[in-house]
């Protein structure tokens, strides 16, 4: 898919993710009755807008930066049972196209976790731009997608004695991203 959709109000240039004002989070069913939520604290990326308004996006996440606010669980998630952070220290995203979906965008791209790359579609809401606080303009986006952990080689089964599983297969990824135009 080619990158043909333009994003209104964004000047041409490279817009870098401001990690201090952004969140990359996830949630997954636990015991099929509740959700465990987590986030990554170390990530970077950019949105590049060409002179004609077309855009491309990239991001890199340091997997070992994940936190669910539970040290024991976080340690387990970093093992080969789940993310295998030692062997695969980064997850990445590279857009392959943008398209309009009503008043929102869909960003299609290659998402890599544990060395496995799959195409994903992010539903993106453009929140607008702001002149910023003396360091140039900023723009905001919220995005969401659902992936199946098994598609990325996270196949641990933790069945419950009475049926069901400790961890669900569907992972919801949510991004709240602020980007700043680089000089």
TrEMBL record:
What SMART domains does the record point to? YceI
Look up the domain of life of the source.
Bacteria
Q: Note the InterPro entries from the entry.
A: Lipid/polyisoprenoid-bd_YceI, TTHA0802/YceI-like_sf
Task: Using the record, list the residue span of the signal peptide; answer none if the entry has no such feature.
Answer: none
Which Pfam family, an example, fits this chain? Answer: YceI
Q: Which SUPFAM superfamilies match?
A: YceI-like (SSF101874)
Q: Where is the Lipid/polyisoprenoid-binding YceI-like domain?
A: 14-180
| UniProt similarity note | Belongs to the UPF0312 family.
PANTHER family listed in its UniProt record: PROTEIN YCEI
Q: What is this protein called?
A: YceI family protein
Q: Which organism is it from?
A: Antrihabitans stalactiti
